[in-house]
Amino acid sequence: MTGRVGTLGAALLAFAALALLGRILPHWFVLVATLAFAKGLVALGLVVLMRGGLVSFGQGIFFCAGGYAAGLAMRSLGVTDAVLLVALGGALALILGLIIAPLLAGYRGIFFATLTLALSMIAYGILDKTYSLGGSDGLNLQAPTFLTYQPQTSQEVSYALFVLASLLTAVAAALCRIHFDSIRGLLSLAARDNEIRVEYLGASVRWVSGTNFIISSLLGGIGGALAALSLGHIDPDFAFWTTSGEFVFLAILSGYASVTAVFVAAVLLELVRSFSSQYFPNTWQGALGIFLLLVILFLPEGLGSLVRRRRRTAVKPAPKPVESVK
Amino acid sequence: MTALLETEGLQKSFGAVIAAKDISVAARRGERLGLIGNNGAGKTTFVNIVTGYLRPDAGRVVLDGADITGLAPRRVRRQGVSRSFQIPQLFASLTPEENLLMALGIADDKGMSAWRPARSGAMMAGLEDLLERFRLGEYRHHTIATLPGGVRKLVDIAMAVTHQPKLLLLDEPSSGVAAEEKFPLMDVIMRALEGSDATVIFVEHDMEIVGRYAERVLAFYEGRVIADGTPTVVLGNAEVQRYVTGVAP
């Protein structure tokens, strides 16, 4: 119980600190951080999958579903409340995940990755040609309200969105940490290592993969709705393969050891992208590539490996065998 | 003692290779049964059929009165059958502690919760018991990939006993272990199983181990059982000496 309470307490403190920081940080940083947290939520879903040995190249489909759910609810139903819009985004992506998960749960490796990519590109193609949903131009979203609070200036809207993103980030990070530390979380690592033994222990690898996929779809949808609200716009590019690739990039950058690292990596990546595109507008993708290359070379387990408490002693040789066992 | 496991006419072929011709075996509750035979004699095929990894071409497997033929390994496990492997099947990037916690968690209906911590009180009590019984305490925090073969064998077997199986199949528990360590290793395993009424079936090539730890021996040759009885009787059987042990009668 202490572990879970401690994790939730730390998340609450982190949220409070972020909410306070948002008051003193420059406006541009608040905007960057909100978008980074939105993308970090999608990458966190990808980390859930990666712990089970699967990489999705199509998380953009859920990111896009969340964004369009928020955009359509605002345009067609007149919903302006950001909390409700994010919930709708998460719900639509979750439903999509529940439909797709049973179809993909039996696939591994490149087959799984390619199928997810294919699905996201199908979604991209459909949205791009569906003019009632804005076609390639997508939809614009107006400034949202927040429960009973209606911000008056763009700065107030940005700050309120930042607070909402921080809250969702803190809650998602805490719940994922608790999940990773449970037997169910360990089982994901086990499925990645040795599927046969997992089955012989009495658990279903298909079930593990499927539920991880559903969790990742929910996080993807929430992230998509937040990103759409933050940008004030949603278009089919949310489902394009380069967007999905960015989430993979982010997950590799963060590693799967630490949930905090996912969001630190997301903020870092957004900062590198912002500064690179400002100072090297024609070659900023190259700068991002070099950044990832350096991380892979020097931190192969991602940024999370810097802060992980290494309980195991993998680098230390095992003690001499006891008298009876070699 | 009543029969816990009964197999009737098990047959299995892989193309032109006949791995099991007609294997009919009955094992009593609590019995320690040794399976001997040359490579390709059908011992591991028998284990793989009983544990659900292979579906027999013909015949059936009955456990405690229930037909478990062709059930998937995880369903067979739920029926009370567990196994270890000739090459330990572990989660190499995790520690023995994590491997065992996982096995304990899966065995416990509440353990699979995503909310309940892996290192909860009940789990840790079960873990400490296993570490003690299998003498794994000092290796608990080392990554599996860094551990010696004998320790991996013990972790593999410890994981197999977490849900207190009715039937435990050990595939060559002492293979890959230095000659002078085989008996100590088997001692640790057998002591850890003391007090359990599980039927233990172990595949073994070392006849001294079979002679010391098995109550009954089945000799396999070309996919069928050619002798069944006490170690003294089976190891003294002329056919077994000719086809299995290679000892001149």
Quick rundown:
The complex is a heterodimer of chains A (326) and B (249). Chain A is mainly alpha-helical and 326 residues long. Chain A has helices spanning 2-24, 27-51, 60-76, 82-104, 109-129, 154-180, 183-193, 195-200, 205-231, 241-254, 259-279, 284-298, 304-307; strands at residues 139-140, 233-234.
Low-confidence stretches of chain A: 311-326
Class based on secondary structure composition and strand pairing of chain A: mainly alpha
> Roughly how many Å is the radius of gyration of chain A?
20 Å
Give the overall silhouette of chain A. Answer: globular
Number of domains of chain A: 1
Helical content of chain A (DSSP H or I, runs of 4+)? over 70%
End-to-end gap of chain B = 33 Å
- Structural class assignment of chain B: alpha/beta
Shape of chain B: globular
Helix and strand string of chain B, N-terminal first?
A: EEEHEEHEHHHEHEHEEHH
Number of beta-strand segments of chain B: 10
Helix content of chain B: 25-40%
Q: Number of DSSP helices of chain B?
A: 9
Number of distinct beta strands of chain A: 2
Total helix count of chain A? 13
Structural summary, described in words:
- The complex is a heterodimer of chains A (326) and B (249).
- With 326 residues, chain A is mainly α.
- Helix content of chain A is 72%, strand content 1%.
- In chain A, 51% of the residues are buried.
- Residues 311-326 of chain A have low confidence and may be disordered.
- Chain B is α/β, with parallel strands linked by helices and 249 residues long.
- Chain B is built from nine helices and ten strands.
- Chain B has helices spanning 43-50, 73-78, 96-107, 121-133, 149-160, 182-192, 207-213, 231-235, 238-245; strands spanning 3-14, 17-28, 32-37, 58-63, 66-67, 81-84, 167-171, 199-203, 216-221, 224-229.
- In chain B, the strands form two sheets. Chain B has a six-stranded mixed β-sheet with strand order 6-7-8-3-9-10, with helices on both faces.
- Chain B is globular and about 55 Å long.
- The model of chain B has no long low-confidence stretch (mean pLDDT 90).
- At the A-B interface, helix 7 and helix 8 of A face helix 2, helix 3, helix 5 and helix 6 of B.
